[in-house]
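Could someone model 2-(butylsulfanyl)adenosine with this protein?
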Amino acid sequence: MSKKDIDRIVELRELIHSYNTQYYIHSISLVSDYEFDQLLKELEELEIKYPELYDANSPTKRVGGDITKSFETVLHKYPMLSLSNSYSKDDIADFDQRVKKIIDVPLTYICELKYDGVAISIIYKNGNLVKAITRGDGTQGEDVTNNVRTISSIPLVLNGDYPENLEVRGEIMYSKSVFKELNQNREKQGLALFSNPRNSASGTLKLQDSSIVAKRKLDCFIYAVYLDNHKLNSLFLQYNYLAQFGFKIPSVEDKYVEQVNDVSGIMNFINYWEERKEDLPFEIDGIVIKVNEIDIQKEIGNTSKSPRWAIAYKYKAVQVSTVLEDIVYQVGRTGAITPVANLKAVEISGTIVKRASVHNADQIEKLDLRINDIVFVEKGGEIIPKITGVDHSKRNANSSKFVFSSKCPECSSELVRDEGEAHHYCLNSNLCPPQIKGKIIHFIGRKQLNIDGIGQETIEQLYNEKLIENVADLFALKKQDLLPLERMAEKSAENIINGIQQSKSAPFHKVLFGLGIRYVGETVAKKLTSYFKDINQLRSSNFEELCSIEEVGDKIAESIVQYFSVDYNNKIIDLLLENGLNMTSDISENILKSTILENKKIVISGTFKNISRDELKKAIEINGGKNSSSVSKSTDILIAGENMGPSKLEKAEKFKVSIMNENEFLKLISEENSNEDSKQYQQGELF
Ligand code: IVH
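Reply:
Sure, complex below.
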């Protein structure tokens, strides 16, 4: 190892960190992009040469690359509280009174912006970022360190005279321009648009691949610090203290933060930003008011949910009025019909709005929307604004009630609305074009088959060119089929074909989720695939058996049975199987362990000490038994837990069903399995 190289690594890391801070925190470019890239490249090469000098906080790590399969849950050292809300000057005056009632000493307030993003807690040890945790439930959150390391405005290594231990809290968010660019790119790729910067920031932070996070250009403002021995007695001093380490803190010059003396100072700040918030480069959803003095904050204390020394002030959503020109219908992949309002174009907070969501027929009824009404439109955090009311004073006397369509706008089938359902549905699922396309788009989605290189637009093209009509057709596609498509380059076509081939290794639960069975989301799909050995077992199951699975209720069971009763659906599944898709559960414990319970119908009731209900059900299954939910004369065994329903017990006695407690049952099956296994059953570890 050459000393010169080692010194150069240290030097480059420091240099690049400092250029980063200048650029991302102070908006100063000290070097050209080219020079910066050269330095980074030099460092990368040296780090490859000396892997033993690995540093998780090297500036080269900003590009990400670490994959987090599942985010570990971590306890917060200090709970992550939320803020109580206020909406008026009176609420603010009440807050001031409450504070002064608890402690009657002179105090000041800090007013700052309430950034609309996701809270994060970042921990530093000896100046090095060691952990970043999401808020979670406030007590424990998820470890998203790999992803947070890629956010340029968060220092990986601190400057200045930092303390040994430091924990800061802040808000991770998208700037308006980055968010806009992100959605423009998604639109180009035919991907569904993100609805608002907050939700997408939260989603991005949970991506498994940190290199994608790195490309997304998230930003972060810091608004709180926790120090072991704090000597700084005001938030204002704390902010200055944090700034020297390289954190992005709210700027006094831009008036993002201000120290005020009383309610009138607070109201001035609120009014100032009410008028200007649309011009900010990022979204805010209000103002935060905090007692400035730390010792007074401590005296005032917290409730279990929020500090008594701080409050959020929320701005009312901007509202405008315009003409409701028409109500049209969109058909989703499940056949659900969503009415959409076409509006006379109107500007809300700098964006032109022509459409608004109206959710469903009930909403139309509730608001009594009529064509040509003057309606109030509001834009909250969401991209799609909503209609909040009608200006009745301007209603045309001849207007008539809006009648919801009885036919599908796409395929003209009769629409159905089941009792208790919010939506009307088109049931022509396998022939109605938007449903067909929607199903295929769902199938290729990130959480389903995750087919790389292919998006909504390509699916539309392929469908329109009659190259695909269902999900199984994807697997028959060849590169030559794709090349004639508009804007399809050779490389893209290759990527798509490779992506389709690779998707064959997706686990069973993803394929099942991808089939788009109504009510079978990601979680239910996982439940089903951990219960059933393969798709054939699932499709031959009945309503009763499905209902016996935890988290599978009547509605889901009915939908599954209905799905598999359609020949077309079974044909598609057979084709997918022929194409090598994985529809077998990879959980080895699903393999039959014994046949001791063969043909036995078993009912579980109550709660158990040594084994969960799910584990018991699986134990029945893998020993050849059948789970059922109600006791009848054909029931063989009732496994009785604590607090079981008396009627089940009565019936079991009446039908002379064998009744066992959990231990008796476990003993019965463990006699058949090895001793080791039975021990594991007792500890609930086998599954
Ligand atoms: S202080 C003890 N300051 O708002 C409470 N929070 O409902 C510490 N937020 O989850 C919060 N901007 O993520 C504080 N300037 C700001 C904030 C802010 C946004 C978020 C924060 C928190 C939520 C509170």
